[in-house]
Write a structure and sequence with these properties.
- The chain is α+β, with helices and mostly antiparallel strands.
- The chain has six helices and 15 strands.
- The strands form three sheets. Strands 4, 6, 7, 8, 9, 10 and 11 form a seven-stranded mixed beta sheet that branches.
């Protein structure tokens, strides 16, 4: 009887060992995503522009926040890079977008939430579909000579500028990609040094592993020195744009539609870089050129048109 029990135990152990063999890895599938970048313009910047006669009172955040939410919902992106997300924006957008049926996760990059000078801080955000994506380690750094410290950089007098970066897992396909967003200064010396810093940090955090996306308001013309710096590392997704009439994406507070005809009036960009373990193809590039009703007037709710790219990662 003891021999029978011993043999049975040996058979069970053998079966367990067979089951414990590592399963073959399932190849990762293709990942097709839409990425949008939108400078929503912070509440304080809007208020200052209205009070100083730069734009009309329609651009007050409380008057146009519903239109901003409609615009983001209409863009229907899988993941958004948002710039100038100050506290009123961060308070209102999740509620407004949820009301429109968007089930999003939020990663807000805030320079220093404890500091009293919130009106001098440019916060950014990454908004993503919670049912599809999972964010890895979230990182932030300042656009300055001391990126790990709460600081301004290269002669910046007013804004504390920050970048948000993270690895993103597409749960459906198993693909990963790296995403970074920020809002640069229009001052050339700050702009160019920030561009070099963005490349340096991308190399540090991503180390050429995954497809890398840089999206944001870079506040620079496409023929400026910043473009040369970034194109030494990235590819501008605008190269896939087939539109003839709409070339620019920055209207200015005067909302001059003529600017949309000129390639030189680009301020928002989506750059991509191939990875060692994955490759990216730009399927499309488009501008969301739509006006929304604000207090009886059809107008743009932000002077920067949303830029949207559809990407295939494999």
């Amino acid at each position: 009887m003891k021999r029978v029990i011993l043999i049975a135990l040996m058979l069970i152990a053998g079966a367990t060992m067979v089951d414990a063999k590592p399963k073959a890895k399932v190849p990762m599938g293709e990942c097709i995503i839409s990425v949008g970048t939108v400078d929503v313009i912070g509440e304080k910047a809007r208020r200052w522009s209205v009070e100083n006669g730069k734009t009309t009172s329609l651009m007050d955040w409380k008057k146009c926040r519903e239109a901003i939410a409609d615009m983001l919902a209409d863009c229907d992106c899988d993941i958004y890079a948002i710039q100038e997300a100050d506290q009123p924006i961060r308070d209102d957008l999740p509620r407004l977008l949820k009301k429109r049926g968007l089930k999003l996760g939020y990663f807000w990059a805030i320079p220093n939430p404890e500091a009293t000078n919130q009106d001098q801080q440019l916060a950014n955000g990454i908004l993503y579909r919670k049912d599809r994506f999972k964010l890895g380690k979230k990182r932030t750094f300042f656009l300055s000579e001391t990126p790990e410290q709460f600081s301004r950089g290269w002669g910046e007098k007013r804004w504390y500028r920050i970048a948000a970066a993270c690895e993103v897992l597409d749960k459906k396909s198993g693909q990963k990609f790296f995403l970074m967003t920020t809002h640069l200064s229009s001052r050339a010396v700050n702009n160019e040094n920030s561009g070099s810093l963005l490349i340096e940090r991308e190399k540090l955090y991503n180390d050429n592993k995954y497809v890398s996306i840089l999206a944001g308001n870079l506040d620079s013309r496409p023929n400026a020195p910043l473009a040369t710096i970034l194109k030494s590392h990235y590819e501008d997704s605008y190269g896939k744009y087939s539109g003839k009439k709409l070339r620019g994406n920055y209207l200015g507070w005067a909302f001059d539609a003529k600017r949309l005809r000129s390639h030189n009036h680009r301020r928002s960009y989506i750059y991509i870089r191939q990875g060692a373990s994955s490759q990216c193809e730009v399927l499309s590039y488009k501008l969301h050129n739509k006006k929304y009703p604000i207090e009886g007037y059809d107008t743009y709710p932000t002077p920067s048109l949303p830029v949207i790219t559809e990407l295939k990662i494999k």
